[in-house]
Specification:
Keywords: Ribonucleoprotein, Ribosomal protein, RNA-binding, rRNA-binding
Family: Belongs to the universal ribosomal protein uL22 family.
Number of helices: 5
Order of helices and strands: EHHHHEEH
Number of strands: 3
CATH architecture: Alpha-Beta Complex
Strand order of the largest sheet: 1-3-2
Subunit structure: Part of the 50S ribosomal subunit.
Strand content: 25-35%
GO molecular function: rRNA binding; structural constituent of ribosome
Structural class: alpha+beta
Shape: elongated
CATH class: Alpha Beta
GO biological process, one term: translation
Length: 129
Amino acid sequence: MEAVAKLNNVPTSPRKMRMVVDLIRGEKVSRALGILKFESKHGAARVEKLLLSAIANWQQANPEVDLEEADLYVKSVKVDGGRILKRLRPAPQGRAHRIRKRSNHVTLVVDSANAELETVVESDNTENK
């Protein structure tokens, strides 16, 4: 019962985005939304919107389960490097320095904590039989 949301080609360096997503990894969804809402880093607004998208994806896949009863949490967040725009900046004595404008891809997975408990209980019941 997990849901995935992806964000591609975000014009922020992967290192800066990892600082933001490390704050919410493993947190409950309500707490993660609170953290992102008041975080001053540039990528926090984009990750907040991505988290809301992942919640909507989970609701779309599980219409019979109530969102409050599901007890959603951020299962995993992954930040990969995206495309790099290469530019040249003039330097002294006729030289040029290369500027690399980095981007990243973010993948966020949301899952229900109740589903985790149900699968553990079911596996314990099958082992005891």
